[in-house]
Amino acid sequence: MPNNPSLCSLSALSLSLSLSLSLPMGSRFLALSRWVLIVALLVGLSSETCNAKDNSTKCTSSCGNIHNISYPFRLKHDPKHCGNVMYTLSCENNITLVVDLPPSGKYYVQAINYHNQTIRLVDPGLQNNNCSSMPQNFPPFLRDPYSAYNMSGYLLSTPVFYIKCSNPVNSSLYVDTAPCLHINASLVQQKTYSYVKVGVMEVGDLNEGCSAEWLALALLSYPNGHNTSYESVHSALMYGFDLTVYWPDEIAPICQGQWSYNLKCFPHTIPGFFRFLCEAIYVYFSRGREHIDYPRWFPFKTIRRGWLPLICFCLFFPARLIFGVPCLIALVIYKWRRRHLSSYSIIEDFLQNDCNFLPIRYSYSEIKKMTSKFKDKLGEGGYGSVFKGKLRSGRFVAIKLLGKPKGNGQDFTSEVATIGRIHHVNVVQLVGYCVEGLNRALVYDFMPNSSLDKYIYSKEESMPLCCKKMYEISLGVARGIEYLHQGCDMQILHFDIKPHNILLDENFNPKISDFGLAKLYSVDNSIVSLTAARGTMGYIAPELFYKNIGGVSYKADVYSFGMLLMEMASRRKNFSSMVERSSQTYFPLWAYDQYNKGNDLEMADFNEEEKKIIKKMVITALWCIQMKPSDRPSMNKVIEMLGGDVECLKMPIRPFLYPQEMHVGDVQENLNSIGSNGELTWTLSAR
């Protein structure tokens, strides 16, 4: 390899496991002012030469079965100029080589392939001709420590999971370890069964009553559990696993046009230059001069390292004056510019980058003026409070003043991004918004007839809607949801369809509102990914809890609409604790049984036409709340069912899941597993 100075920077002499110096903004300014002398001395580090490179590549050594150990590897007691210090191996009893692989521990080195740039390791806990021996080290997971910045992208070996089960498992994915690991008396007394799973472990691969106890790596293909013995798996473990090795020299071409040091690249900018200097200073003080090949002109080679703090201390005050004053001015300007912007960068970045955004941005003082200093309060919920306001044009609006945001304001950006780009007669219209400091507000059209829940549940003070009007409202809601699913360039999933989020205008036309939990997906995606359950208890689709019944899709909104439609038809909550008999507690099951027997629902003061409307709504709702998402119709089909004749509707299968059948332990377990991510979105409505 030619002796190219650009390829021989200090970056060629460090391993990818080297620590990088990471400082917050304030500490970074202070560090720069303290190291002004070193800034001047190290400005040319990126072009230094490697005088010791040729000598390091000429060294060879051997230990046991491993011969011709050469650059970048070296043995522990080799001369200092041999190999690279970060690739040091040790020789024990002249039998095998041992490499200390953080954070796992020691491994035996079986072979080094300089052509393929791989090193094969084996766990010291494994023994030949003893299949009961197990690995003692947990391998470096998800990161190859010998690969610079994990440039290989993956380990070259296959993971082997050790699994313990309380009951016998008959699965093609599992390899039984008997009799190798069943000779342990403690396993027999505990009545546990041991298996291994070769290959990537998916969540669904772990059977009930089983837990993954250990992980090893092996050069092994993905076998069928019934056709593979544990002895062959153990033999593969004894053969070892491969890690990729990136020679330190090879990082330099990747950093062409940039400063390179410690296997890292730094752009030719002022911040990049100072980051580069911080890295060099850190390595110097943490490892010492003996680990670095310095250029000839480097002054600290002849200066004792203990003198450096004294030299830097003497230059601290002038450096602080030179660098501190400009930094202070820059900080004041930055704070002044950000004073009237949102405190949440996610919100501000979204508002500045969305070119198609149409609603008006109001100041917080304008919001206070619209609401007469928040005088007329319409309601309150987990999201914040709603106040009645009036625009200068005389138009009445409802102003939603949001409380503390979730996830850096992601709930706010979700609602603004979703509702700000759609216009439909059955979707509430976003007039404007406010983002100023910690204050966030959304301005909507005012709905004089409030929300649908006030008309569904029987109250003496509320005037109930007639059956025909309730049917028209349900049809309008269905059209609004269908528009969200198919009417836009992006598929919008609401995830919180319920009576509280259906607003009614002066003519009782329904408007879907509250898009705080909504998600936007491509219309081509039939299945969407969620990191947490979202919605309101009683309206959440079962697939958000039970992943094995189907993926999460637009059918989740269909389920929520079905529960809403059932409540609109019955004028009551689907689950009532006032009924003593459990068979009558859950209205959908009771209604299904009545229609299945050929009986009509007993409802007073309803004529025959109204009974047909109610039956059509109930049967459509029963289709929407089917357990499996694949059994539910699309919203387009729902509109067709609601608009057709009731005689043409077929009865679906009996709903499988209802509150009495949902084991509290199962739901709690799902909530705990989801909540561990810290991303659970949950709304409990007190009605």
Automatic annotation (TrEMBL):
Pfam families: GUB_WAK_bind, Pkinase
Example of a GO cellular component annotation carried by this entry: membrane
Gene Ontology molecular function terms on file: ATP binding; polysaccharide binding; protein serine/threonine kinase activity
Mode of membrane association: Single-pass type I membrane protein
Domain Protein kinase, first and last residues per copy: 372-657
Keyword Heme listed: no
InterPro entries linked to this entry: Kinase-like_dom_sf, LRK10/LRL21-25-like, Prot_kinase_dom, Protein_kinase_ATP_BS, Ser/Thr_kinase_AS, WAK_GUB
Keyword Translocase in annotation: no
Primary site of residence: membrane
Cellular location(s): Membrane
Residues noted as binding ATP in the record, renumbered to the chain: 400
Domain of life: Eukaryota
Record-annotated membrane-spanning stretches: 307-334
Keywords noted in UniProt: ATP-binding, Glycoprotein, Kinase, Membrane, Nucleotide-binding, Serine/threonine-protein kinase, Signal, Transferase, Transmembrane, Transmembrane helix
PANTHER family the UniProt entry points to: RUST RESISTANCE KINASE LR10-RELATED
Designated name of the protein: Protein kinase domain-containing protein
Originating species: Prunus persica
Lineage: Eukaryota, Viridiplantae, Streptophyta, Embryophyta, Tracheophyta
